[in-house]
Structures are given as C-alpha cells and as structure tokens.
Amino acid sequence: MLAEIIKIEEISTNNVTFYTIKFDGKSVSEIIDFYNRMEMEETNIEELNVIDATIEEIGVRKALHRYFAREEQDASALPPYSSNYIENLEGDFGIRLYCVVLTEEIVFLLNGDRKKTQSAQNEESNVSRYFYMANSLFQELINDKLKGEISWEESGQLIYENDYLVNIKG
Amino acid sequence: MSEFAKLQERRTKIPSDTKRYVKKSLDILDRLHELIEDENILQKELALKLNKSESELSKWLNGVQNFTIKTLCKLENALGHDIFIVPCKKNKTTELPIQTRNLRGKLHFAKFIEVEPPKLLEQENIKYALVA
Lengths: 170, 132
Prior knowledge:
By secondary structure, chain A is of the alpha+beta class. Chain A contains three helices and nine strands. In chain B, α3 (43-50) crosses α4 (54-61).
C-alpha cells in the first residue's frame, strides 16, 4: 500500500523531527488513527498520557534507543516501560505505539493498540499489523535511500520529492 | 486546522505527576548509561557483579523493565556511584543533586560538597589559610 510521509511540525523540536505516514485513500494519518481509536476507551487515558509525555521528553533529549521498547527487527515502540505497566491483568501487555527510529533525530510515529499477546510477531496478535508496518516502513526507507529517492540529514530533515510515496508491504 | 493540532492539545492535558514519572524514568536510564560509560565497565562484567544474566541486565539498560529501589541500590553498589539521591532534610543540602546539560544535551549530575571553614595555622610565624 502506498503512503505519503507527513512531517508533524506541531511536536517537532530542534532535536527531533517527528513524522508519520498516511495511506492512500485514508482520511487520517496513522498516528491520528491511533489516538482516535485509543481515546474511545476511558481506561486508556493514563497510558496515553505516558506515551504523550515520553514523546515530549524525547523531543528534548533526542531519540536514543533506550527510550523505546525494542520490539525486535526494525520496529520500536512506546512507552519503554509498557511491558510492566499493567501487571495484574492477564493477556494485557499495555498499549503499544509502534515507531521507526530512523536516527536519533528522526522518528516516525505510526499506529498501535493494546497488546494482548507476548509476541508482536505472532500473526494472530492484535498488534502484529502495526509491528509489520513499522518494519516494512524501515526497510522501504533504506531501499529507497539506496535508490536515491529519499535521503536524510543529521539535522533531522528527510529530503524527497513532493510526489514521493513509500510502499508499505503487507 | 492541521489534524496534528490534536497532539499539541493532548500535551496540555498531561498530568504533572505523569510528566514527572516519565522524566525521572528517563533520567535514571540516562544516569545508568552515563555511569557505565564513565566507569568503562562492560555489560558482561556488570552482569557478573550483579549475579544476573546479560539478558536480564539488558532489559534494565534498555528501559524494558521498571526498576525497584532494591534493583537501583544493587546497581549503585556495583557501579560505586549514586544513581539517585533523595533530598530529605536530614540528608542536608550537601546531598542535593544538581542536574545540568552540556551542549550535546547529555545529562550530568553534580552535588554540593560541604567544606571545612578556613582554619588559621601558625607555623614559624607564618599564617596559612587552609581551604578545601
């Protein structure tokens, strides 16, 4: 599926530029779809606040890998401590917002859900599509960089033509 | 209006205790990595000192696992430095950490050191002022 890359000016800082993607034909970007769905449940508010506060801190500090939960392969997730966030509910590993940390200055905020299985890679997992979306985006960006279709600077800026679309597999 | 105005608006509603929790959690991670770098200690060595597996230590160092006070104290012992200091009154102001950032945004911690007031010594008719 083809997706457009969108810079999130509203929360980007001098240290970190945040981006997201918007699939062809969808009315909202992935990060807004995530919040729209998660905000519907009152019980999600506390965890969403932790994610918001973590994104704000990352904007101040830079996107070091230790600030993200590593979900194997090329996907990262927020918040970093989510695996222990809700300790008493079986089959509830907390909310995961999947991200791609391209550099310490460039972060893609994508989509996610409340994780209900231990492994995101398990195809039956309710978060596997977001996990694979993040992995595919990372791979495609690397491939397109090699083809000269996109590049990035240390300042945190992605450089690409206006009509550039990234092809997300799966 | 951009759809991302929502993200800005959400930030205005984050409770201050949540901001504090996140900031302190990341501060602890930064401090831990800073000490490991400063002490030039390998993760393998640190794991051995703590009697933990490398994978368990990795979970702590990569923010996957919440720290208990007990864990933090074990890490402080193994690294030979404070990771956190509690500024209660009986600890005096001498124990208060000052957190600063250098130009690269790296976190540094410093603390006040209490020094003896200057003492005057008379030795062979010469007065010396001793300062720390």
